[in-house]
Amino acid sequence: MTEQPTTSPPRKSGAPVYLTGLLLAGRRVVAVGGGSVHARRVPKLLQAGADVVVVAPQLHPRLAALAASGQLTWRPRTFVEGDLDGAWYVLAATDVPEVNAQVAAAAEARHTFCVRADRGEAGSAWTPATAVVPGATIAVQAEHDPRHARALRDRLVRLLGDAGD
C-alpha cells in the first residue's frame, strides 16, 4: 500500500505556525494508535476535558488503565474512516505510515485538524513542547524540530520557575 498524500496546501520550509489554545472540553478527540506517544498525549487531552476515543488493537498500560476506569473510550480494532465522524481534533500515531496517512487524509476531508506523529509535515497541526509554570502554560514550536522545541521549553522553565508538566 502506498502512502496517500493529504490535500492540504504545501508548506514552505520554515513556514510559521499559528499558535492557538484549543478548548476541547466536551469535544470529541480521536487518537489513532495505542502506544507510548498517546500514553503521553491522551492524559493532557483528558485534563483539558476532551471526550477521547482511542482506536487501536492494543493499548499501552497507561491507556488501558484510563479505558478501564471509563476516562476514555477504546475501540479495540484498526482504524476506519468513520472513526473521525464528529471529531474536532485527531492524532495519528501508529507504527504504520500508511495508516497515519489514511487518518490524516480522512481528517483533511472532514476539515478536522490532525497531528501526525510520524511525519509532522504531512499533518495539519503540530503539538508544541509544553510546560506548566506558576500562573501560565508555555508552548514552544521550533520550525517542527521537536528536540530544539523541548530544549527551548526547558530553558524557559528554568527561567520562569519549576514546571508542573
Describe the structure.
The protein is 29% helix and 19% strand. The longest helix is centred in the C-terminal third of the chain and has 15 residues. It has four helices and seven strands, in the order βαβαββαβββα. The strands form two sheets. Strands 3-2-1-4-5 form a five-stranded parallel sheet, sandwiched between helices. Helix 1 runs parallel beside helix 2.
Task: Please outline what is shown here.
The chain is of the alpha/beta class.
Key structural traits:
Rossmann fold; 2 domains; disordered N terminus; alpha/beta; two-stranded antiparallel sheet; five-stranded parallel β-sheet; 165 residues
Tally the beta strands. Answer: 7
The string of secondary-structure elements, in order, is EHEHEEHEEEH
Q: Terminal Cα separation, in Å?
A: 39 Å
Instruction: State the strand order across the main sheet.
Output: 3-2-1-4-5
Q: How does the major sheet shape up? A: 5 strands, parallel
Mean pLDDT: 89
CATH superfamily of the largest domain: NAD(P)-binding Rossmann-like Domain
Going by helix content, strand content and strand pairing, the class is alpha/beta
Strand content: 15-25%
Task: List unreliable stretches of 5+ residues.
Answer: 1-6
Count of separate DSSP helical elements: 4
Radius of gyration, whole Å: 16 Å
